Structure formats: C-alpha cells, structure tokens
Amino acid sequence: MLPLEKELKKVESELAKDDRIAAAFLLGSAAREEMRSESDVDIAILVEPEATFTGKDQVDLVIALEQIFGRKVDLGILDHDNLIYAKEAYTKGRCIYCNDSFYRDLFGATTFGMYADLRESRKEIEDAYRT
C-alpha cells in the first residue's frame, strides 16, 4: 500500500459528503510520494460551476482533512483566475476524487487551451522586450 492510501480512502468518503465538489487533486510532495514527517498535504478541489464554496466551507473542509491526515492541509480551489495553479494540478497532481468526470475533463481541457493562449501572448510580450 502506498503512503497515505488508507487516509485517501477516508478523504474520498469525506469529499463525497459535499455534492458541490466535482473533483479533488493531491499535489506537491504527497503526489510525488516524497513526503517527509514535517510535510503538509496539498489538495486542490474543483467546485461545480454554479456552486458557492465559501471561506467557512474551506475552513471546515481543512479541519476535517487535517483530522484524517493528522497533519496540516493546504487546500486550494481550482479556477481560471489562477491558471498556472490549475494547469499544474492537472499535469502534476493526482486525481483522488471525482464526482463529475465530465466537468473535471471539460475544466481540464479549457485550462490547457487557456494556458496555451497565455503562453503565446506572453511570448509576444517577452519578444517585444527583447528587441
């Protein structure tokens, strides 16, 4: 059994209690299976498009997850306002929960398209500064 596997099964049950959560990704050292004793657990959640997930909701979820893991949890919300974070979650994270695979995949495809546009726009700006 991989490190955290037992806890991840409990996390899946915890996340399933909230139908606003479409998917969740394990990130950072936990996803790379390089956790140390002092490492926190980084988790990003994808919230259903029309749902509201308040700061209180986030705090409540962090508390529940910290009880499961027995260590600090850093919880992030996936959206297109933080495009690089979202892209990293999809490329380097590990999906540990999915309640809505259609939306998870649609959000991922949209993220990659927007990221490609961002890179192209940024290239034009960087090239302009080089001349």
From TrEMBL:
SUPFAM superfamilies: Nucleotidyltransferase (SSF81301). It holds the Pfam family Polbeta. Residues 9-101 form the Polymerase beta nucleotidyltransferase domain. It comes from the Archaea. NCBIfam families: MntA_antitoxin. PANTHER family: NUCLEOTIDYLTRANSFERASE, PROTEIN ADENYLYLTRANSFERASE MNTA. This is Polymerase beta nucleotidyltransferase domain-containing protein.
